Amino acid sequence: MPNETLAVHRFWERLALPGLIDVHTHFMPERVLRKVWAYFDAAGPLVGSAWPIAYRQEESRRLEVLRGFGVRSFTAMVYPHKPGMAAWLNDWAAGFAASTPDCLHTATFFPEEGVHGYVREAVERGARVFKAHLQVGAYDPGDRLLDPVWGLLAEAGIPVVTHCGSGPVPGAHTGPGPVGRVLARHPRLRLVVAHMGMPEYTGFLDLAERYEGVHLDTTMAFTDFSERIAPFPAAEKPRLAALGDRILLGSDFPNIPYPYAHQLHALEALGLGDDWLRAVCHGNADRVFGGAGGA
């Protein structure tokens, strides 16, 4: 067993877990992923710094690596950057989930005519998680076209992993304010704040305390890479501990600039205890997604 895989296994075996559930991984059509990688390679405006891709491999190899780590369930975070993409991405993601039973059926949306229809269709086809990317999509989550979509997803109880924080580069509609206004209208919405909402950690912890459906994923948070540019405030660690049932493991695999194990070790280094780690790395997602850990 290679050293990296062994390090990941030792982490979850020490915690007596059956493996990990990672709610923030990216699988998407190959030509789309290649464009995403090219954007990272060029350190595009939404990236802001050098960002080497640690797992630049063919899809079959990426699946092999993730499963080899002991990740029992994961997602295919797809997202559009313009109108006309989301329905096509949803079709691809539905096919990917059908052929990849350990992948939670993922879908997405964009504020455009017809969005409610194709989101409803994705729900009817069995989507278990949605992805919204306010930074890349550059749209207001409060757009009138999305209000019925948020309502539908709130009613269905389907989580929406949402990049709504202003890291690594702020967008016109990032920060806790825009999604906070959505939550005020749809308080039952299961909103999973990607990247712990960095760098506006405090504002998103506020939302999690205010709305019981708000969760936060750990994607890239607390790692050396992120601590250099958006350190988590030490004063907020007690709140992080208290919200331990609302934190979900996310990694951004394969688009991370360090080994997968580093995310896990960064969580361990917080010193919040083994029960907190068990909940974050498996138990919470297993509950939110209804038995995902057995996939």
SSE blueprint:
Blueprint: H1 3-14, E1 20-21, H2 30-41, H3 59-69, E2 71-75, H4 86-99, E3 103-104, E4 106-108, H5 115-124, E5 129-133, H6 134-137, H7 147-156, E6 160-163, H8 176-185, E7 191-193, H9 201-210, E8 215-217, H10 224-229, H11 237-242, E9 247-248, H12 260-268, H13 274-288
Helix pairs in contact: 1-12, 4-5, 5-7
Radius of gyration: 17 Å
Helix content range: 40-55%
Low-confidence stretches: none
How many strands?
A: 9
| Run of helices and strands | HEHHEHEEHEHHEHEHEHHEHH
Number of helical segments with 4 or more residues: 13
User: Oligomeric form of this entry?
Assistant: single chain
The fraction of residues in strands falls at 5-15%
Task: Describe this entry's structure for a reader.
With 295 residues, the protein is α/β, with parallel strands linked by helices. 44% of the residues lie in helices and 10% in strands. The protein contains 13 helices and nine strands. The protein has helices spanning 3-14, 30-41, 59-69, 86-99, 115-124, 134-137, 147-156, 176-185, 201-210, 224-229, 237-242, 260-268, 274-288; strands spanning 20-21, 71-75, 103-104, 106-108, 129-133, 160-163, 191-193, 215-217, 247-248. A six-stranded parallel β-sheet has the order 4-5-6-7-8-9. Helix 4 runs parallel beside helix 5. The longest helix has 15 residues, at 274-288. The relative contact order is 0.15. The mean pLDDT is 96.
